[in-house]
TrEMBL record:
This is 3-oxo-tetronate kinase. Its EC number is 2.7.1.217. Pfam families: NBD_C, SBD_N. Belongs to the four-carbon acid sugar kinase family. Coiled coil: none annotated. Catalyzes the ATP-dependent phosphorylation of 3-oxo-tetronate to 3-oxo-tetronate 4-phosphate. It catalyses: 3-dehydro-D-erythronate + ATP = 3-dehydro-4-O-phospho-D-erythronate + ADP + H(+); 3-dehydro-L-erythronate + ATP = 3-dehydro-4-O-phospho-L-erythronate + ADP + H(+). Residues 256-413 form the Four-carbon acid sugar kinase nucleotide binding domain. It comes from the Bacteria. Keywords: ATP-binding, Carbohydrate metabolism, Kinase, Nucleotide-binding, Transferase. It comes from Devosia litorisediminis. One of its GO terms (molecular function) is ATP binding. Residues 3-229 form the Four-carbon acid sugar kinase N-terminal domain. Gene3D superfamilies: Four-carbon acid sugar kinase, nucleotide binding domain, Putative sugar-binding, N-terminal domain.
Amino acid sequence: MLLGAIADDLTGATDLSLMLARNGMKTVQVIGVPEEGADFGDAEAVVVALKSRTIPADQAVAMALASALVLRAAGTEQFLFKYCSTFDSTDAGNIGPVAEALMDLLDVPIAIACPAFPAAGRSVYQGHLFVGSSLLSDSAMRDHPLTPMRDPNLVRVLQAQCAARVGLLPLDIVSAGAEVINAVLHKAQQAGFRLMIADAVRDADLRVLGKALAGARLITGGSGIAMGLPENFRLQGRIGSAAVPEKMAAPAGKSVILAGSCSEATRGQVDEAIAAGRPALKIVPADVAAGSQTVSDVANWVLANTDAGPALVYSSDEPDAVRAVQDKLGKDEAGLLVEHLLANLAVILRDNGFSRFIVAGGETSGAVVAALGVSSLRIGPEIAPGVPWTRSVGGPDLALALKSGNFGAPDFFQTAWDLLQD
Ligand SMILES: Nc1ncnc2c1ncn2[C@@H]1O[C@H](COP(=O)(O)OP(=O)(O)OP(=O)(O)O)[C@@H](O)[C@H]1O
Ligand SMILES: O=C(O)[C@@H](O)C(=O)CO
């Protein structure tokens, strides 16, 4: 096993798995901390999908370390800690604490941190993260329900989460090539830095970083940082050129869309689906809390509204409405209420012949897929940058598209189905 990755949420893990598979690595995605002694077959890369982005930092560290130990025992050469391309975290963590704990475990003196993913509009310049042409703090991420991002300066953001000293690997150094990058990292290490935010604004920067990191034991970043890594193994003659299929055979059964993401892209996709006439039912957290909207009401509605094509169940709402319900119910409680409802709904639907699911939102996908009893995924065709169709391996046979909240074009919920074959 060449590359072992630990992702802090499920959609982030599928995003990374797609990146590795597209660049030629036989990739397996496992859900949750793998069992001790797990056998990953002929996988060249394994991506462990955790649900640790917003849990207490000590728990996130424990899950990451447990995963790393299993991956290390399986012979992993290079480790990657994958977090969100919008650096979703709080002052308490979890990016810094997990990165530091992995560095200690793997005896790594210095590592880079780079969430850039230009295909999805995420670039890092002078340590500042941009979403499209806006600074992170001016993007819709400032109103994220769980991890509002209000500081675009990633050196400052990561430093607030870390005991380690955080520095910057600026674009002029990245552009100067692999040798210069490694020389500067070496100097930074001698000067006492342990984590370096790396600038990258184009795919070419990520590929140069990938080349420079050929021998690195641990890398941290978004899926973009993985772009250049398979090439290192290919140059050593250790991987072939496995490709991602253009279409995916899906198990027979009905289809549904579950959206628990309040991100801007998901809200646009929900609006577009409703405008296109798709049957759509809104989950209202206050009604769920009051018991006036129940999972069986919602399941019955879906069963009655699936004849004309996949129905949409969504809790996606505008930032003001989300804030209002969080003030009333509590932030974590509101989130969990919606996650539980959608997860229980998915189980009822699975038991009623549904086998094709689009799920929007990383936390939401984590809750839904855990409830469905899926333990690992095979990566299928790319629907949008960072979002593949996947098919479950073991457990119930399902086609799953797990969409990061901010990924995908407005017609995502319409077009994704075209890539499935009966
Ligand atoms: N109307 C709502 N009010 C309050 N919280 C909500 C509402 N709808 C969803 N939530 C919660 O907000 C959180 C959204 O997180 P999730 O990770 O699913 O989406 P995302 O952050 O947009 O996606 P990603 O992590 O892939 O970027 C979940 O915990 C969800 O239950
Ligand atoms: O990096 C991203 O933006 C996504 O893979 C993700 O992590 C969303 O939760």
